[in-house]
Amino acid sequence: MNIYHNVFFTIAILFTTSYIHAFAPSLTGPFNTAAKTRMYFSSSKLYQNTIHKVPEDDDTAIPFLDPKKNSFIECYADSIAIIEGVEYTIGNPCDTSVALCYFDENYNLVPIDLDGPLMDEIFPLAAEIVEEEFGEELVLERTPQTLTLVGELEEVEDDDDYEDENIDNIGDDEEEVEVLLSFEEDGREYVLVKLLDPVLLVGKASVDKNDQKCFLLSEEEADRVMPVLEKMFLEN
């Protein structure tokens, strides 16, 4: 296994909504806290869809649980939405959102499926490399929805000396990332990248109002709720 250290530069990769349930950066605010509302009739009850911004100084860490995997990711609340009488919290991860990727035959950067067998194989190697490189300062965690890097990640300047003519023609749907480290395994190059655009996750609030944890959406819930949330963000 060959490891390339101190590789810092910015490239772009394409993330789809199947990779993480997140809003596009353009939808993250700011928006009017006196949110517009939409009324509708369902199951003989009149509901009111609302959304409001959480104060920026609220630094309470809220666990977003994945019930299927018995795992969680801690997030800071960005906003609260009520849809069909159900409360949802939109939060951004407390720790740095990262992704493991590889280069395909056209030198396009492809994110590894979080739940796929390739992640099972590559994640332990990447976590070991992070530990060797940064010691106790940084820890790579396999959190749900997005990998996270726990610890204080120092800001780095772009490497102006780095040029790669194979990385070009960046489209509007692609996301800029910062490469933190690169390594080879079985003849394929892998990279750990920091996601530069905001990552917002959606969790359904616990029915116990004294319990601040939220539950990450299932695919069925996401298909129903995400279009409504995105429309509410656009309207406000």
Task: Kindly describe this structure.
Helices cover 15% and strands 40% of the residues. The chain is elongated. The chain has helices at 117-134, 219-235, and strands at residues 3-4, 10-14, 38-42, 45-53, 61-66, 71-83, 86-93, 96-103, 109-111, 139-141, 147-150, 174-185, 188-195, 201-205, 214-216. The protein is built from two helices and 15 strands. It is mainly β. The strands form two sheets. Strands 1, 2, 8, 9, 10, 11, 12 and 13 form an eight-stranded antiparallel beta sheet that branches. It has a five-stranded mixed barrel with strand order 5-6-7-14-15.
The value of Rg in angstroms is 19 Å
- How many E-type strands? 15
Distance between the termini: 50 Å
Specify the helix fraction band.
10-25%
Shape: elongated
Number of DSSP helical runs? 2
Secondary-structure element series: EEEEEEEEEHEEEEEEH
What's the rounded overall pLDDT mean? 78
Query: What class do helices, strands and sheet pairing give?
Result: mainly beta
Question: How can the largest sheet be summarized?
Answer: 8 strands, antiparallel
Low-confidence stretches: 2-45, 159-172
- Provide the β-strand percentage band: 35-45%
What is this entry, summarized?
The protein is mostly beta strands.
Offer a few descriptive terms.
2 helices, eight-stranded antiparallel sheet, elongated, 236 residues
Q: Which secondary structure elements does this structure contain, and how are they paired or packed?
A:
Elements: E1 3-4, E2 10-14, E3 38-42, E4 45-53, E5 61-66, E6 71-83, E7 86-93, E8 96-103, E9 109-111, H1 117-134, E10 139-141, E11 147-150, E12 174-185, E13 188-195, E14 201-205, E15 214-216, H2 219-235
Parallel strand pairs: 5-15
Antiparallel strand pairs: 1-12, 2-12, 3-4, 4-6, 5-6, 6-7, 7-14, 8-9, 8-11, 8-13, 10-11, 12-13, 14-15
